[in-house]
Amino acid sequence: MKGKPTGKRSGKLRTDWERLRNQSDADIEKGIAADPDAHSTDAAFWKGAKIVMPKTKQTVTLRLDSDLLEWLRREKGYQTRINAILRTYMDAQRS
User: Fold this and answer.
1) 5 and 34: one domain?
2) Within 13 A of 10's CA, how many CA atoms are on the CB side?
3) 12: which strand partners?
4) Which are the contacts of 82, defined by CB distance < 8 A and separation ≥ 6?
5) CB 84 within 8 A of CB 54
6) Domain range spanning residue 17?
7) Which of 1, 2, 26, 74 could serve as a FRET partner for 59 with CA atoms 20 to 30 Å apart?
8) What angle do CA 57, 61, 65 make, to 5 degrees?
């Protein structure tokens, strides 16, 4: 079941949380059944699963250009994105 966009922020569609809160269990189950990418997991799926602990993080002070920081902060999780960007750069340099 596809949601209706409620507006745009940073060029992305926003989630209609009110509509989602008001959905019945039957509506949710119907949406899951209609989603071709949704499927149950079985014992075989979990057989090779491993627990992966997150790497420890360190607090740092970092000076960034104000326009860059403003751009990064437009969405939640900007520190995680900075980490991902830097990790991708690091991995590319290793290759």
Assistant:
1) yes
2) 8
3) 9
4) 72
5) no
6) 1-39
7) 74
8) 120
0.90 exceeded by the pTM? no
82 vs 72: CA distance, rounded Å: 8
pLDDT digits (tens, 9 = 90+) for 8-46: 555 678 899 999 999 999 999 999 999 999 988 889 989
Does residue 5 sit in the same domain as residue 32?
yes
Q: Say yes or no: 1 and 35 in one domain.
A: yes
Chain mean position to CA 90: 22
Answer for the pair 32, 38: CB distance below 8 angstroms, yes or no.
yes
Distance CA 45, CA 91 (A): 29
Q: Closest by alpha carbon to 71, among 14, 11, 8?
A: 11
Domain count, the chain: 2
13 within some domain:
yes
